[in-house]
Amino acid sequence: MMQFANDSSGKVWICYRFYSYHPYDIDQIKINYADGDTWAETPMVVASYPIDDMCNFPDIIIDDADKVWVTWEVPNNNQNYISARYYDHGIWSDTSFVSVDAERAGYPNITKDNSDHIFCMWFGTSGMESGFYVNHCDAGSNAIEEPNMPIEEPYIHLSAYPNPFHPVTCINFSLNKEGYTTLKIFNIKGQLIKTLVNEYKRKGDYSILWDGKNKDGKEVSSGIYLYRVQVENHCVTRSLNLVK
């Protein structure tokens, strides 16, 4: 499946899925662009997964500032994920991986409103129920708002440095209200890797180190991980890139 978009200079951008069983066994989302009659020599890789994960259904849009936004589906067993990134003058940035409490989340689309705000939409099913989800995912924040939550003063500020990292990163979070707080690390399949915080926290700033090890003290492999802070009913998730 291929999707197209145009930027303000007239370039045509294409987004598509690429996979190779041998010798690489990889599944990728790629983009490329044509300036006039000439295509860029080397396509850019937006995301890369093992072949069994089968990322699919990419979509692309270009905002008024010529940022290139891409979203796609990442299936995994009985639970799927929607991911999104944007490309701005040579730099890729994560908006976040969206973990959906549904048996299937798929067919994502990315769009913008008249104010150039970016929204990711997809269809999800759980049991006998199904429906549409919409997430607000503007640039300037690595987090995507929880579906159908009202926009208000941020309850949690969350970041990590360095990112990408090896072997240790510092996760920083600020709470504007007190409450029972958890900080957990997940892989992109939604499997819990390690719990770093699990206690009542007062309003304030906190810093926690993660050394790239799981709950058993073993080093995890390189790749994308999610770090999530939850305080009461408020939750923010962002991505980490462990390189070796």
CATH topology of the largest domain, by name, is: Tachylectin-2, Chain A
Give the low-pLDDT segments.
Answer: 140-154
CATH superfamily of the largest domain: Glycosyl hydrolase domain, family 43
How would the global form be characterised?
globular
Beta-strand residue percentage: over 45%
**Structural class, please?**
mainly beta
Question: Biggest sheet: strands, sense, closure?
Answer: 5 strands, antiparallel
- Helix percent reads under 10%
Please tell me the overall pLDDT.
Answer: 79
Distinct helical segment count = 0
Explain this structure to me?
The chain has strands at 2-6, 12-20, 26-35, 38-39, 44-50, 56-62, 68-76, 79-88, 91-99, 104-112, 118-126, 129-136, 156-161, 169-175, 179-187, 192-201, 204-210, 223-231, 234-242. The protein starts with a strand and ends with a strand. It has no helices and 19 strands. It has 2 domains: 2-136, Tachylectin-2, Chain A (5 Propeller), CATH 2.115.10; 156-242, Immunoglobulin-like (Sandwich), CATH 2.60.40.4070.
Which properties best describe this structure?
four-stranded antiparallel β-sheet, five-stranded antiparallel β-sheet, Tachylectin-2, Chain A, 2 domains, globular, 244 residues, 0% helix, mainly beta, 19 strands, single chain, Immunoglobulin-like
Write the layout of secondary structure elements.
Layout lengths: L1 E5 L5 E9 L5 E10 L2 E2 L4 E7 L5 E7 L5 E9 L2 E10 L2 E9 L4 E9 L5 E9 L2 E8 L19 E6 L7 E7 L3 E9 L4 E10 L2 E7 L12 E9 L2 E9 L2
In short:
This protein has 244 residues and is an all-beta fold. The protein contains no helices and 19 strands.
